[in-house]
Amino acid sequence: MGKVTFMFCTLVIEMAILWGYANAQEQVGFQNLCLGNEKTTRLQVFVQDELGGENPTVWDVARSNITSTSPTSFGQVRVLDDLLTDGPDRNSKRVGRAQGLITSADLQVSALAMNLNFVFTSGQYNGSTLCILGRNPLENQYRELAIVGGTGVFRMARGYAITSTYSYDDETSYGVLEYNIYVAYITSTYSYDVETSYGVLEYNIYVAYVDASNENMQSLN
Ligand SMILES: *[C@@H]1O[C@H](CO)[C@@H](O)[C@H](O)[C@H]1NC(C)=O
Ligand SMILES: *[C@@H]1O[C@H](CO)[C@@H](O)[C@H](O)[C@H]1NC(C)=O
């Protein structure tokens, strides 16, 4: 019994030390990330919105009791996994996916509450994501959504996206949406490798660079 108590205490102490150490490193890594250069860019992507057809990429998740009688489909929740392309044509270069939830959330006019992740799967942004939130008033030609964050290359991203309907085919329920994204993000001062996870190990490597010499730092630019 005494031995068990002793081992338990040791474990608690070791964990406390390790936790404090990892936490301090995380903080240093985060501080260094924020000291990096902020970069701005404009991205133009097209969302291939297949509401019908043989392989729809938008599906109903839930409906409220009043959805069927509501003029704005209030309470309809849909999930989507739409193809992102670099041009309006569905056969344009594939750049990623738009994934998330859209909810009809206005009792008066058609407007969606959007909760989307743009997941890039090619080019310099491969493996990075942008998080997009906001109100999408469908009756307006241009709708503005907020870029509230990102991962990978887009760490600490903020900005906005202007979206408009490029085309919509009633017969096939196929829509193409244009997104012009204006985003500022922090470029970290070490090279970003999509094959490694964004874990503590990555911060450890970064801290080692900082401790060694500033000349070893690499920019993403
Ligand atoms: C919604 O409709 C169902 C089925 O008609 C009913 O059982 C339920 O009480 C309704 N809920 C509300 C909140 O009105
Ligand atoms: C994107 O990154 C993944 C994972 O590293 C890789 O397998 C894939 O080939 C890359 N795609 C392109 C188009 O570069």
Automatic annotation (TrEMBL):
InterPro entries: Allene_oxi_cyc_Dirigent, Dirigent
Compartment(s) of residence: Secreted, Extracellular space, Apoplast
A single GO BP: phenylpropanoid biosynthetic process
Source species, domain of life: Eukaryota
Sorted UniProt keywords: Apoplast, Secreted, Signal
Signal peptide: 1-24
Entry's Gene Ontology cellular component terms: apoplast
Major localisation: secreted
UniProt function note: Dirigent proteins impart stereoselectivity on the phenoxy radical-coupling reaction, yielding optically active lignans from two molecules of coniferyl alcohol in the biosynthesis of lignans, flavonolignans, and alkaloids and thus plays a central role in plant secondary metabolism.
Family statement drawn from the similarity comment of this UniProt entry: Belongs to the plant dirigent protein family.
Subunit structure and binding partners: Homodimer.
Protein name in the entry: Dirigent protein
